[in-house]
TrEMBL record, chains A, B, C, D:
Gfo/Idh/MocA-like oxidoreductase N-terminal domain residues: 4-123
Example of a GO MF term: nucleotide binding
Record organism: Thermofilum adornatum
Top-level taxon in the UniProt lineage: Archaea
Protein name: Inositol 2-dehydrogenase
Keywords, comma-separated and alphabetical: Oxidoreductase
Length: 337, 337, 337, 337
């Protein structure tokens, strides 16, 4: 069986997941190297999987055994790392979002095109069984013509570490809600045309000080018709609260739930359910399928299911959102490529 | 339009409901009289509806304007009241259970037969939209051949007033679980053949002292095949908890829910749902349809949908349950008519 | 016990409900007359309750026995009927919305003020147990400071009869979504400051031809901070779909559900739940409490819980929504009184 | 860090899971060998993890590097494999149930005691977050004194391969419902005293021919008070249907759900939910915690959380169930050790 030799660059939580998946779950991938600027981290992961450890990205890219790189570092590093990998002839999987700005995204996309390497962006929700089935049902016509997309996304808390700095992460519209914009495009099969955003930092002082927002509501329109509402919040005291719905002329599809149905305690106060506890358990399979899709696109020499342009479109929407918040008026989404 | 003139005898909560329904909701019924031994009660209800008030049941039965009587008194009074009504040529609707003992039930049934009057027993759950639709789905074959009936029934608290005395009410198997046995027979379309009961008074001292039970589990078998489990409890701290399921060869139907889905409060402790709050709201429509069915059976001269024999069958099951608890062995249900 | 003598003017479905409730459920109200321009309708309802029948509204208002009038006619008739009732010295309960335009609402409010009669508007959801408990929880501080109001409202179908004509009904923002705007004001305890609306008639040709909308999304802002999203649709193929949520700094309250939890059929296709079936059953108790609140405000000479100004505020929001749709920009809500 | 060197014997699906977990997730375990009688299987797994491959169990046990063995073979092989491992001085984790008969279980337990090695039985549900939290809540007193245990367990289909032969698997009471009996003992904190079972093979001819059952209902009693109901079925057309509830004097805990809340398709037929899809995803974390608990019990030289005697108790209950079905009477559970 032909196999793709992969390396993972950036060994935070999500990098470790991609290392584990490519090692244990994919028959046609072979983990050959890991890289992190923290050498202890690189060494410990390398030892576990008996693979090479790097602390220098350029050195990793010179390794002829590596066919493809998973980039799992802070967003502001993505552009340069993608360009370098492409120039080194490596296929690239980058965690979402592709880059902080649309101009960076275009640079990354062009580098990959020029080098003729695959470039895939990790919007793993597309591979989640519930979202994937929703897409399938919509394509099959189960709800008729899709008219309205609604997404409510509340994280349990403020983002950790570097993701709190909007200059590194792109802020709430990119770091958090780009998943939801990707779903809007994917499930409706249409581009976002115009956004009108209300929002502020109402929950956390540190977010306000860094210039990011933590509560937003967005009303938007799709090209070719159809409307959308997105609400994002950086707080949900009982756990993740992520729900999506798509109303069509003949039905409505609902994805997600705020409650873990598996435990209820009935007491005098009522029945107490827990919030969703199983984020990683739930989405682990999505990461597996996502990584498999990337590997398959390389082996079959096909376009990856989530392209650099898909990544760019979401950055463009986020940029329009920022303008709408600042100028307090509806903003048309500008296509830059 | 031909109309049936009705009287309600016994003006507790359930009697008032039948008075209101026959007055306001049924086009082909006309409330003409009400009766209660408490004269203030009889007078106030009569005044509201501008109908006759009686405090004496025999006097009510002599009223030639009355075509049919709703008997909504304590269970131990049912037998004599049914017999008298039949002898007076009045059609009879009796609240459940029909009587405290099977021999009383037979007497009541025979009196109605002899007088050629309708006799209907008020198992209103059969008219609840969810249970009625479940029956329809089963008959249509949605779940294939029904094999297992499971019923979990928890009341919010101990029964009030006279219903706490098993000599007046028949105890937990008749006063509470006869609804569930009626559903077992109705949904499975089969008679109950044998029961094995475990139970005790584990929740309330007063129930123990009066010789009734408050927690029971029952394993039973249907004639012609199929099994059943029933659990009853006189306590559920957050509200009614009534759920029924019927598993067939090709599917399972679930009726009821322990949670009111209409309100959830998400706090640090989780999402708190209320128990079922809308007992009367939910079942009000069932009472309306039940009363309509009784009136229609009179006008069309048809067998009522829940006959005296249906009422008797449930009393026989309850008697077998009492024997099983006392003798601690499986008991065959004896058919007495 | 002092009682308020009431009349119901307009005997469509909702008028009949108010007649039934004031007759059967309210101890301190006495139904004395009903009125409809269709004489058969007036007579049949009057006969049932043994009260007076009118076909002429002016004649009804001259009846000295009548203390208060329930106005349950098409919206475009409300203003004149409220003014006339006030001038006749009758207290007024009007079904929602108060009027089609804000200037009409002001006229109605001023007439009631001048005559010193009570004027209450029928936003019965405030009396629904789930919504009322949500309000109570918010006031108690269960969710901290409320920040975001979200409401998804999908009717099962296009409105019937006169309500299809936006000139008579005020269109989707008044006829349907005024309930939701009333809830936004009520639950958040703040006025709506600005709205931005997207919408079209995407479902029904007849709605398009009459100049109304059937699918809308609204992003709005509250005075003093906080944001809102409302989505309305005139179609939901499986039943009512009404859900509201209020996110605060320390929790989120969810009201409503798209599913009737009481019946599920498990087959090879999955578990099939029904949509919400019990609209009338669910909200009947809310109508009872609403009517009781109106009667009590008269007997206690207090301000009704939903005033004419409450009714006006919602009309002002609806007018801003229409402007936003037409001018495709955010519109400030103008206070006219 | 001290580490336990482990081997996995039997590389079916569940064996592979234990190999993956001990390799990737446990810091203090080291996978050193795998064994299967099918050499291709042993070799491919060994190659993946770069560990030793065995096809002969006795040879594996002679490997001095191996500290502990995971036995993941058909049940009828467990007894001999446990005894041999103990005699070789290896700690033993055996998949559930411990053995087919109670006399075999006693032999296995005694061998482990004699050799002074750990023996743990894999009832992983105890480590599932929902079940574990339920246990915690019960111990904390959230529901007062637990009185009733109810468990409904429906598998999506007949068991595969060897598990269809009750001589190899112990039949429905051991192969399937031993999980539920383990939970009964665990959550109630009491032993099962007496069982009364109804059951037959009503779903599958092949199960009937092999002498196993596919539909059972069980009514049982706990020592020291309290009752239980268990229903098991080898068919649930829409997916796993596993629900447990424990009613106490002051509350009720519900574990499990028949519905995946994450996707609903609303069409004219209602809202269609899927059954539970994520068996492995859901329980994967439970397997991880279970394996960690075994490893920790070795390193800390403590009694494993699920002992050989725990395994034996469930076998004794299953034996009583078989007798009850055959003799059609309540059977006391006999303690054999």
């Amino acid at each position: 069986m032909p196999k793709v030799n992969v390396a993972v660059a950036g060994l935070g939580r999500i990098g470790k997941v991609h290392a584990e998946i490519t090692f244990t779950r994919l028959e046609n991938a072979r983990l050959v190297a890991v890289m992190d600027v923290v050498s202890e981290l690189a060494n410990s992961v390398a030892e576990k999987y008996k693979v090479k450890a790097y602390t220098d990205y350029d050195a990793l890219l010179k390794d002829p055994e590596v066919d493809a790189v998973f980039i799992t570092t802070p967003t502001n590093l993505h552009k340069e790392m993608i360009v370098k990998a492409a120039e080194a002839g490596k296929h690239v999987f980058t965690e979402k979002p592709i880059t902080v700005t649309s101009s960076e995204a275009i640079e990354a996309i062009k580098a990959a095109e020029k080098a003729d390497v695959k470039l895939m962006v990790g919007y793993m929700r597309r591979f989640d069984d519930a979202y994937a089935t929703a897409k399938k049902k919509i394509v099959e016509g189960s709800i008729g013509n899709p008219l309205v997309f609604i997404n409510i996304a509340r994280d349990p808390g403020a983002p950790p570490g570097w993701a709190q700095d909007p200059r590194l992460s792109g802020g709430i519209f990119l770091d958090m809600l780009s998943h939801d914009f990707d779903m809007a495009r994917y499930l409706m099969g249409k581009e976002v045309k115009e956004v009108y955003v209300k929002g502020d930092a109402l929950l956390y002082n540190e977010i306000k000080q860094k210039g990011d927002l933590d509560v937003v509501t967005i009303n938007f329109e799709f090209e070719g018709g159809g409307y959308g509402l997105i609400h994002g919040s950086r707080k949900s005291v009982f756990g993740y609260d992520l729900r999506t719905e798509i109303m069509g002329t003949d039905g409505t599809i609902y994805v997600g739930s705020q409650t873990d149905p598996n435990l209820a305690v009935g007491s005098k106060d009522g029945l107490i359910y827990r919030g969703v506890q199983w984020f990683w358990s739930r989405f682990y399979d999505a990461y597996v399928l996502e990584d498999a899709a990337f590997i398959n696109s390389i082996l079959r020499d096909e376009k990856p299911p989530i392209t650099g342009v898909d990544g760019l479109r979401v950055v463009e929407i986020a940029e329009a959102c920022w303008r709408s918040v600042k100028e307090q008026r509806p903003i048309s989404v500008r296509r830059t490529l």
